[in-house]
Amino acid sequence: MEVCLITTGAEVDSDVMNAIKATYAEDRLFGPVSMNPERYPAYSILIGLIYHNKQLCIPSDKMVWEALLAMYHDDQNHFGISKTQGNLSRDFLWSGITSDVKAYVRSCSSCTQNKSSTQAPTGFLHLLPVPSNRFLEIALDFIGPLPESNGYDCIVIMTDRLMDYVLIEPMVTTAMAPEITLLFYQTWYHRFGLSHGITSDRDKLFVSRFWQKLFKKLNVHLHMSTAFHPETDGSSERSNKTAIEALWHYGNT
Hints:
Layout: E1 3-5, E2 11-13, H1 14-23, H2 31-35, E3 43-46, E4 49-52, E5 55-57, H3 62-73, H4 81-91, E6 92-93, H5 97-106, H6 109-114, E7 137-143, E8 154-160, E9 166-171, H7 177-192, E10 197-200, H8 209-217, E11 221-224, H9 234-250
Parallel strand pairs: 5-6, 7-10, 10-11
Antiparallel strand pairs: 1-2, 3-4, 4-5, 7-8, 8-9
Helix pairs in contact: 3-5, 4-5
């Protein structure tokens, strides 16, 4: 399949690009630009395509709109309205793009089936103190068991509590404290150094004697969230939710 490379790096099917070029002449907004480009210095034409700054101008064509919406929503982890619109608006420009994104995302059958409500829970939140710098406080959680892939059936999610930076690594559900410690050392520690505190959900791996002694020796304090106040670890719960939703979209059960 031939593809055309947009300047921002997004790959669009050549049939879609040809449809864009063919529709310019009849388009109410961009037709005059294609016919008399010298009158519109804010726009530039490259290989028959009209650009406004770095945005590719898209004429009024429902087929083209749906193809681009599918590429920036279906093929990119089924992100929500704001993130899909942000990514799409970075590369493309067309009239009514905001309403089109909202309508497309809200009508996505995969999102309806696999995404849960993001409504905040009722009651008071008991939040942990905000870290003073990035990578000082992290959250460590396990998602699994999952369908086995390349010998792994679990993922470990490491989330920086200040920046919400997420690192996801494969693991097996039978892993014990030594294996988890080695994984943490080879991934997060090698990239960002040792964190001052780690928030966990009281998983049996974290309360093992080996894990406790290791971090006590390194002067790292473990913060345990409780079953009564799981919202204390809100940033990692958001990371876990996003990872699980992506697995639902693309994983075979």
